[in-house]
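Box 3.1 A note on notation
Throughout this textbook, protein chains are presented in two layers. The first layer is the amino acid sequence; the second is a token string describing backbone geometry. Keep the layers aligned when reading.
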Amino acid sequence: MMRTLYGASPADIAGMDTGRLRSEFLVDGLFRPGAIEFVYTHIDRMIIGGAVPLANPLTFGDGADVGTERFFTAREMGIANLGGSGAVTIDGERFAVANRDVVYVGAARAR
């Protein structure tokens, strides 16, 4: 499941207190052990995600959350490894990643 953040006009934001601003715009909870978490924001139509793999590989589903047949039908992704060495598999092709390595996934590449 993907959390969605919606945009707001400057007039709306001017009337929000700190608690409301945090509840509407703060992106947190992305790095939960053993899971992949996504937040879709209508600001720049961007999806932000985090993953903390443990013993088992992590995968995510189709494009249902974003209204397309496949997740990468109309979008691309950069996967940055912020932890220890590991691997990313895209369309059956495995890429070894070390700390601070980045893997680019082009639109319609992953199925």
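The two ends are 18 Å apart (CA to CA). The chain has two helices and seven strands.
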